[in-house]
Amino acid sequence: MRLKNVPSEFQEALPILEKIKAAGYEAYFVGGSVRDALLQRPIHDVDIASSSYPSETKAIFPKTIDVGIEHGTVLVLEGNREYEVTTFRTEDVYVDYRRPSQVSFVRSLEEDLKRRDFTINAFALDDEARVIDKFKGLEDLNNGILRAVGVADERFEEDALRIMRGLRFAASLDFRIEEKTFAAMKTHAPLLEKISVERSFIEFDKLLTAPYWKKGIELLLTSQAYCYLPLLQDAQEGLKHLLTAYQPDFVFTNSEQAWAALLLAIAKQKPDLFLKKWKTSNAFQKTVDQLVSLYRYRLSGSFQAMDAYRYGKDLLLLCEELRQAQGLEVDFDLIEELDKRLLIHNRHEIVVNGGLLIKELNLKPGPELGSLLNEIEALIVAGQLANNKAAIFDFIRKKDHE
Ligand code: ATP
Ligand code: MG
Fold it and tell me: How far apart are CA 269 and CA 263, in angstroms?
């Protein structure tokens, strides 16, 4: 079968395949981009697999970077783009259920495709747009089925991350997981405890932000995979709540919003600690934490100017979307209005600062000056004091006479 409508990303990358072939090796497009092209979805990261060993690949192209030589991956810089070219390989010895302790480079495409997780991820596409489909992936793709390549039990035992990957593909593509594949996922779910948290996070995050995330959560529950993910052992009720709380076709706007909804549903009191355990970045922890607090606070009242100032309009909008998706009363106009009316967006925009007040009004440094500045900031944010020197000085002088 030939791929119709070859996406421009492949066309641009074609010279890479041609150059590798001209040097006497085989080369193909592989992985998710071939799947997505067949599904006529936008593709990202074009991955190339080749029979050339890393040193051979490096000899073909003038500009390369070693990004994962031990796994056979060389980054090729051509035009203004970068392409990962990975040597055909098998992954044979898994010592601790984490990553293969050893990869063997091979010269056969079929061997390489065999080690891939699902039939719909095991296509190769050659330089004439012919689809190589060794495991009936096209049939599965047409029927919307996710099926492990080879013996499912072995595949999940080799690498339990594939369980999370499977759930997230079901959630992003709205695919059904074939019975034996799903049974094997259930059996080997306890091995998820051995998977590095960072890898699990990436897959769980993709699941939560996918269009059919509810399907992903349902599968997470029925497979009991959640029991083996960080701090989710007792989350069954919360996850069920997440399924019923939101309108059927609601899709999260971003990761921060999705994880905030998860944390609210499972009622974790300390989102930052939870996310620390998931080894997320400090910035991510902070934003999700703020969103969770904002959501809880908004349950008992409307937003004020100070909220727009302190958290920014975007976070307030994310919070309001969560409310809307649960059928709660919302006021998006108020958020726009509060933001528009703000005279300042951060402290540095105030025309006076401590130094200036000390110099021009002879105030003394110390905690009192600090509270005075806080008061000035709050009044400007509330629209009760103009952000100009005359008005602020006037306010301070009047205060002195109180
Ligand atoms: P996405 O569109 O999200 O990037 P993807 O299928 O391309 O999805 P990647 O993580 O980019 O996923 O991996 C590229 C390819 O490598 C996959 O399509 C699959 O063939 C193979 N692969 C990735 N991870 C695994 C794994 N844990 N086990 C087996 N094969 C894998
Ligand atoms: Mg990919």
Answer: 8
Q: Where in the chain is the domain with CATH 1.10.246.80?
A: 347-400
- The number of the ligand nearest the C-alpha atom of 32 reads 1
The two structure tokens encoding residue 399: 């205060």
Judge residue 340's burial from the number of C-beta atoms within 10 Å of its C-beta, 0-12 exposed, 13-18 middle, 19 or more buried: exposed
Mean pLDDT, the chain, rounded, equals 95
| Collapsed DSSP state (helix, strand, coil) of residue 321 | helix
Confidence bin at 79 (pLDDT 50/70/90): confident
Q: In which residue ranges of the chain is CATH 3.30.460.10 found?
A: 1-143
- CB 162 near ligand 1, within 6 Å: yes
- Over residues 20-36, the pLDDT tens digits come to 999 999 999 999 999 99
Distance 2 CA to ligand 1 centre (A): 22
Please write the tens of the pLDDT for every residue from 307-335: 999 999 999 999 999 999 999 999 999 99
In whole angstroms, how far apart are CA 228 and each of 90, 148, 164, 261, 266? 28, 21, 11, 20, 16
Cβ proximity of 10 and 29 under 8 Å = yes
Amino acid, single-letter form, for residue 359? K
* C-alpha span between 37 and 47 (Å, rounded): 13
pLDDT of residue 99: 63
Q: Provide the sign of the torsion angle of the four alpha carbons 185, 186, 190, 196, taken in this order.
A: positive
For domain 347-400, the question of CATH label 1.10.246.80 is answered with yes
Q: CB atoms < 10 A from the CB of 198, how many?
A: 10
The CATH class that applies to domain 1-143 reads alpha beta
- Residue 31 in contact with ligand 1 by CB distance below 6 A: yes
Measure the CA–CA gap between 54 and 60, rounded to whole angstroms: 10
**287 CA to centre of ligand 2 in angstroms:** 27
Angle formed at CA 262 by CA 168 and CA 260, multiple of 5 degrees: 115
Task: For residue 196, count other CB atoms closer than 10 A to its CB.
Answer: 12
